[in-house]
Amino acid sequence: MIDAVATEVLKTRRSRVPWVTAATFAVATAVGGLFMFILQDQDRARSLGLIGTKAALVGGQADWPTYLSLLSQIAALGGMLVFGLVSVWLFGREFSQNTVKDLLAMPTSRTSIVAAKFVVALMWCLALTFQLLVLGLLAGVVLGLPGWSAEVLGSGALVVVVTAGMTFLLTTPVALASSVGRGYLPGVAVMIGSVFCAQIVAALGYGAYFPWSVPALFSGVAGPDQASPGLLGVVLVVPVGAAGVVATSLWWRNADQDR
């Protein structure tokens, strides 16, 4: 297992994909900071050409609670795409680059290979979440946002981490799709389909019962008028993540690799 994890880490370190995901989260954090900058003084933003003369941003204040809530929303919406990309790459690359037979010929069990990929995916997504928090805190300090306190920071950071954790669990079916579909495209299709269905179900008012809608609702992206998913919604995420891991492991262990 240690050798399998080390191999996956080496593959990841030599790839450009981690830099792409890190840059994506950095841009998302910068956009969040830009929104706070505009909300601080919209007249100043108009004079700088950041928004149109007649445009206005509503629905928030430029303070720490609002900014931390925005970071959690980035973890929910952007995380589903970025974390999904991580799973697509880790599992789909073996088939797209025709290295799966070489990988399975090694004296390492297929279950260990899958477990190593999920371990690396978890570490990767945790690093991205940490990056999001650190860059977000730096941007908030630079902007001089009001409302700072240890309690606000702790609760806001906890929401970001929990949201990112739930989002990661919901990407395990993406790994299964990339494996069964033997490439990148099936995983990307499942990832996009999950995001689309999550938006539709949440708009219909049943998001609390649809696991893929739960992280966004938990982060508050739907606004104060939308009810929180509650404990039931959060609990529903766990079996989805576990089922994705188990199903992926079983497929790798039992599937015939005929090409």
From TrEMBL:
Transmembrane segments: 19-39, 70-92, 113-146, 152-176, 188-210, 230-252
Record's keyword terms, sorted: Membrane, Transmembrane, Transmembrane helix
Keyword Transmembrane helix: yes
Entry annotated with the keyword Transcription regulation: no
Domain of life: Bacteria
Designated name of the protein: ABC-2 type transport system permease protein
Originating species: Lentzea xinjiangensis
